[in-house]
Amino acid sequence: MTDNIDNLILEHLKRFQAGQERIERELREIKARLSTLEAGQGSVLQHIGHLTSSIAGQMRSGLAP
Questions:
Q1: First to last CA, the chain
Q2: What is the residue extent of each domain of the chain?
Q3: I want to staple 58 with a disulfide (CB 3.0 to 4.6 A). Which of 3, 12, 15, 63 is the partner?
Q4: Distance (Å, rounded) from C-alpha 61 to C-alpha 54?
């Protein structure tokens, strides 16, 4: 009887471990994707800054309407 309980507990622990490994794998993927999004956002903000600077320069030189 004790062996059956031990085996049952071990099976549950194995399932928990497999679930935890899956969650950790997915979390790593999410973190990688978030890093990519953050880098892309930084690039977009940098481009907006350059465009704003260019427009301001054109306005100072009288090229913009």
A1: 89
A2: 1-65
A3: 63
A4: 11
Which alpha helices (DSSP H) does 1-65 contain, by range? 2-60
- Decide which of 63 and 17 is more confident: 17
Nearest to 37 by CA among 29, 53, 24, 23: 29
For residue 7 the two structure tokens come to 């085996």
- Alpha carbon distance 20, 28 (integer Å): 12
CA distance 46 to 10: 54
* CA–CA gap between residue 43 and residue 25 (Å, rounded): 28
Q: How far is CA 61 from CA 2, 6, 23, 27, in A?
A: 88, 82, 57, 51
Rounded CA gap, 55 and 65, in Å? 11
